[in-house]
Amino acid sequence: MSIVLYNSMSGEKEPLQTIEPGKVRFYACGPTVYHYFHLGNARMFVAFDTIRRYLEYRGYDVRFVQNFTDVDDRIIQRANELGVNPRELAKQNIADYFADAEALFIRPATVHPRVTECIPEIIRFIEDLIRDGHAYERNGSVYFDTSSFPEYGKLSHQSPDDMRAGYRIDIQDEKDDPTDFALWKAAKPGEEFWQSPWGVGRPGWHIECSVMNLLYLGEQIDIHAGGRDLIFPHHENEIAQSEAHSGKVFARYWLHNGTLNINGEKMSKSTGNFIMTRDLLARRDGRSVRFFLLSAHYRHPLNYTEEALTQAEQGLGRIDRLLRSIDHHLAALTERADVVPVTGALPGTTATGDCAKIRTAFVAAMDDDFNTADAISAIFDGVRLINTRLESERLTMADLEAYRNLIVELLDVLGIPEQHAAQLEAEVEALIQERQSARARRDFARADEIRDILKHRGIILEDTPQGTRWSFES
């Protein structure tokens, strides 16, 4: 079997053939760090973290680069609103990103470059484009000349004429053509700036990713990924400036994740229909949030509702209960004097064929454009099969350990860590304490919400005169 992935450039699924055998050069667009990241961002980060994990699971050596945009109009605007230095704001929001990403079990990239660390390289890249006739300077700003790149529009499948029709005509515009885009912006009063051959200013948005790719992955990469909203203009412009600079195909495969809606409507800050990931993690378990974000194919739309997240919690709870059940069976066997502990499934044991079947279905789903929805279905099919075995057959220790190891292995590929007893106990006790505090201040809505959260995780509370006790749902 081989991995196939949907390439936004061709509009088709294609077999994965990397530049270097066994190695993947993978770039994913990271956050603009003017605030916490929202749930739509979280979906993108989780999706590409999972794809990276799966490529490694299949034996690839993955060099994964994800940038931080720490120079941007939104950063400047918010810093001015808060009365803080833009650099300090960006620094704090990068720290906040790592905290929230860790709560979702998103692994750090191989490299996390920042725009402010690459200014000299950005300037040299722009100078090369000017020298080769692909860019021009106007009043301290530099623009890419899209007419110099005949393939402009090949990713978004638009012609320059169609693009021009969508631009507002502005007689004050200093660009030669409406489709041209900024590589370097002349500084405005009160903005941070850097010295350049064209005067003081700062990089345009698109140039950073081209330069970071060149610095950390080379002129050609295997996979470039981002949200669907980045296809145009961001990724289209990346292709133009990168390929004009190198004369080579920039990326072999372009992956774009689908949108995340909130209660059936497009997520929008202007209408208040959005969720900050940090706010959600304050009241919901990170494992369940990640499990929910993987419940649909990464290219398809995903609709967030409280009910959908609750269903994800309940589904993950079924898997957790299976692992606890296996542990109970293992403990019972260990206590028997006539049992010799054996690690791993042996040829001919019941688990051998079952595990092969479950793993094959999981791999087939993930090989087909990283279909996590079908991969999760394969895990649930395995849970049902293993539960049937536990109820109807006398299993060996080798069988039990093989089943357990398989489920943990497949969850790990999805970035879902095992729920360890000590960690679970600490989380449950903390929620019970919070519930008691809520009841003391007569916030019964929050107290009931905490009870429901625990119930969704398969935990039942019993209030007694001696305090609140908890147990697993049978």
TrEMBL record:
It is found in: Cytoplasm. The keyword Chloroplast does not apply. Its EC number is 6.1.1.16. Its cofactor is Zn(2+). Keywords: Aminoacyl-tRNA synthetase, ATP-binding, Coiled coil, Cytoplasm, Ligase, Metal-binding, Nucleotide-binding, Protein biosynthesis, Zinc. A motif ('KMSKS' region) lies at residues 266-270. Residues 361-425 form the Cysteinyl-tRNA synthetase class Ia DALR domain. It catalyses: tRNA(Cys) + L-cysteine + ATP = L-cysteinyl-tRNA(Cys) + AMP + diphosphate. One of its GO terms (molecular function) is zinc ion binding. Pfam families: CysS_C, DALR_2, tRNA-synt_1e. Residues 421-448 form a coiled coil. GO terms for biological process: cysteinyl-tRNA aminoacylation. ATP binds at K269. CDD domains: CysRS_core. Its main location: cytoplasm. GO terms for cellular component: cytosol. It is an enzyme of class 6 (ligase). HAMAP family: Cys_tRNA_synth. Monomer. PANTHER family: CYSTEINE--TRNA LIGASE, CYTOPLASMIC, CYSTEINYL-TRNA SYNTHETASE. Belongs to the class-I aminoacyl-tRNA synthetase family. This is Cysteine--tRNA ligase. It comes from Alicyclobacillus hesperidum. The gene is cysS.
